[in-house]
Amino acid sequence: MAVTIGLIWAHEKGITNFLCEFDLLQIVDASQDLLVNLSFIGKIIEDIKMLSLTVTEAFISHICRQANRAAHRLARLSLTLDKCCEWLGSPPSIILDILVEDCSSPL
């Protein structure tokens, strides 16, 4: 669901490149499948497919769970917020330690 909101936000802001990384391979595969998804989350998957067309370059890829720590921390933070917020340019301080660690880790 968050990716659909993110794609709408990207379209409204005129962002032309959108990268979304999931740690669940089934979601990535379903979002790239040309067939209509009839599963219990099919409506969300179909929304992702349609909204991806509104952004010039939308990439949806799979990453391991360990590489998704910043997203998990932001998701937890969102549960404590009263309203939506966005960061453009600099990342929020709550994930800086994870980003620094990720940048200094060997591939």
From TrEMBL:
Molecular function terms, GO-annotated: nucleic acid binding; RNA-DNA hybrid ribonuclease activity
Range of residues in the leader sequence: none
InterPro entries referenced in this protein's UniProt entry, alphabetically: RNase_H-like_EbsB-rel (IPR052929), RNaseH_domain (IPR002156)
Domain RNase H type-1: 2-76
Coiled coil: none
Protein's name according to its UniProt entry: RNase H type-1 domain-containing protein
